[in-house]
Amino acid sequence: DDTPPLKVLRALLNEGERIPYELPSLSALRIFVDRCNEWVEEATNYIVRKQQNRRKNEKAWRKGSRAAEMEERDRELRKVENVVKLLKEADRIGFDCPEIIQLRERAEAIANFQRDAKTLLDAPEAGSTQEFEDVLESGRGFNVDMPELEKLETIVQQKKWGDRAREAHGQYLALQDVVSIIAEGEKLGIAESSYFLLHFRKQKEAGEAWETKAKELMAVEIVHYPQLEALRNQAKALTLPVSAETLAAVDQILNKHREAHRQIISLYERSKDPDFTKRPPYAEVRETMEGLAELNSKPNGTLDLEKEQKRHEDWMRKGKKLFGKANAPLHILKSHMEYVLERNVDCFDINTDK
Hints:
Layout: H1 6-18, H2 26-47, H3 54-61, H4 66-77, H5 81-93, H6 98-122, H7 129-140, H8 147-169, H9 175-187, H10 195-219, H11 225-237, H12 244-271, H13 282-291, H14 302-322, H15 332-348
Helix pairs in contact: 1-2, 2-5, 2-6, 5-6, 6-7, 6-8, 7-8, 8-10, 9-10, 10-11, 11-12, 12-14, 13-14
């Protein structure tokens, strides 16, 4: 190999510049070394592995009129054809340096990457997400723009979506989650025939239909609780994607109704206790019945408890009439009976001298 090493040429130039005489060939040597140094500087852009986010960071602070100019320069530097062009230039210039070997190795690595990328891109379904990510990551390290990188990036994102969709397929998702998955899939250009895209679109349709029906049932003046309960059970059994807000509103109505029903049944059963001291006080029954006025539909058992309440009120009215207090409020009967009882005890108490 008769190409002179750049290291020797630099040393020779340095030595010649120290000689205090005009050397005829020194100027030509300086021009030649400067051209070689420019080549090395340009080649270093493709030899040194750069951080991928560097250009993004540079873009963040670029302002003013030079931004477009620097963007254009970046694009020129990132052209993959430059690597081949630089190697041809090195041959034409006629010098030797370690950077030439490194650039040849880089060109070979780029060619290997493009071959691996083509293999994957020719049969994208056959490659795993990790395989695509590995090849993509290796390609990014070359600091050059290649059409394979964009294609790999697109397929990696699509495969990641498929992985997330596959995982989400067996999980319960809220309606908003399903909407997000569909929107992301559409943005990534997932095929319309995709099983997961079709599945989540059906889920979204079923979830929105459930939402509409639930809101209709809650909006009517008289809520039909069995229908609402059936709708709630349907969402649970079919794991339909619904919004947390609508589900909470349905549960609140049903829970309020269930609690009212539980209270009614408890009061009614206690009112039948043979031991009258264990029966519920009239005030408790009345308070519960007044609370039911807030519900726009009465739970089962309400009529039975109303009958018991009315029976008790009829009894109190008879008592008031018996003691001549017919026009007094119902609760006056209790205080009057206590007074009568006290007087009665006094009358028959033989141990007390009144």
